[in-house]
Amino acid sequence: xxxDSIFYKxxxxxxxxxxxxxxxxxxxxxxxxxxxxxxxxxxxxIDGVFLPNEVDGIAYFCEVQFQKDEQLxxxxxxxxxLYFYRNRDRFSDWQTVIIYPSxxxxxxxxxxxxxxxxxxxxxxxxxxxxxxxxxxPIWVALMVLTTVDESQAPSEARYLLERNIAEQRSSRAIxxxxxxxxVYKFEDLSQKEVEAMLGITLQETRVYREIKQEGLExxxxxxRKQEAINLVVRILTKRxxxxxxxxxxxxxxxxxxxLEDLSEALLDFNNFADLQAWLIVQKLA
Length: 285
Hints:
Layout: H1 3-13, H2 17-20, E1 32-39, E2 44-52, E3 57-64, H3 72-86, E4 91-100, H4 114-117, E5 122-126, H5 138-145, H6 153-166, H7 172-185, H8 191-197, H9 202-213, H10 222-240, H11 245-252, H12 256-265, H13 272-284
């Protein structure tokens, strides 16, 4: 399961999520943006940095680590401090946040970094210790969903989808993240199997789509729509290989406006699972 890309998307969609994990947050938490940066000489790739919009704010360095790395802290502190050094005039302070699924994934020998790890500048988050997934803020719950056992994941995913509606959010971003997480977690399942797992029935989605598209289908130009279908399928085939008939049928059933959205969205797809998740979201929308 590619958790790094999932967490990257979570932070992109909702940057304040990081501060929901920390004991305290800056007063301008809603003004931060999430980015990834590179530091040259030597070349370091920092997983993610939360940067304040104004000068003299705090830079938050974030690392998501699901596999044990016995030199993680050497790398993280080297990257963070070197970046802070090269951008000292932009920031007043720095903090580092490391997110683990559990304590067992943490580096074994932490003695050389005991002072930093016990300071207020370093925050270690263990997702399995945050509490009941159903009682957490919904964006934090999405992070925890990536760690839930496969036997429990379907019921928890359905709960989060229902909660999204019950809390009157109807957020496409949350729907997309739930479906993306489940597609990655169950990579061997087909699109229809993931839909069934999430409690989506073909009848419900068909009816909803027909209601939503009422009055719109008449205005579609058939020629333009077919051209859009051909273009999208050609690009996707070039990127991911021959598409299954099920996927081709799903794309062909999209209205022209959504096909145009797909032609832009596919540029951000990293793999075939991203396409599957995107199509599922369209059925829920």
